# Entry
Amino acid sequence: MDAARLKVVAREPPDAPCTRKVLFQSLGIAVVDFRCRAHVAAEGGEEPNPTHSIVLVRRGVFRRTQQRETVVADANHVLLFNAGAPYRYAHPLPGGDACTILTVETRRALELVGRHAPVDAEHPERPFRRGHGLSSPRAVWLHWELLDLVARQARRLALEDALAELANEAVACAYGVPVPSRPASPPAQRRRRDLVEAVKLMISERLERPPSLTELADVLGCSPYHLSHTFHGTAGLSLRAYVGRLRARVAAERLAAGATRLTALALDLGYADHSHFTNSFRHEWGVSPSMFRSRYRIHP
# Structure
């Protein structure tokens, strides 16, 4: 297993009432699988949260109380937690719960909040001034896409890009507004276009093993979140979708030129294996690679 692409740490003993497993860690965020097997339980004492956190509920119900604010959290919710803030929990229904927790470093939490509420980003001790919101359809889709990418041990670029989009969308859900699309001045638009074009060039240079979002951002001197958001907003699709589409188009050209060894072609373009290539190609073109080749082969 490539430790740079998937970081898994030890979990609590299997008989513990709650288990945590770190699935992936990058961009100042750890993606944690959290499962609680608690039975029906009344509200307990206050528990300080260990980190700034974004919580996406996958299954079950629990009640969270902070000061006088109480929310019954289910799979329709996104919850935000501040490090050190005291919360009380109760489980009104049997069955426990399962959540995906994004533990967020302070600087990343401030960056995420600053895009939706700049004033809140001035308080590092409590970056999340709002505690919860309804999860948008896009947040749900990104959530499950990220978990699928983790399970498939996808490349780091895809994992980081999905993580950046999910974190931003989840915070937007809690702040009650969509990801903003503000008009930019002509110089700003030019800078964004230049940034996107630089990314596209770097991707094309290493299509078989594209750089990670972190590497791209480091080279281009910007935040990974800014890069992910700018690319999507300017190019009209996410970085990972762009890479997937570009690979499928390069593969199509080679198939039309007569490439016969599909496994070799798949590995040459950075697909994990023959199956991954076939599924990805079919998703993009609507036909299998072999059918595309037979239909569109360019004869000399």
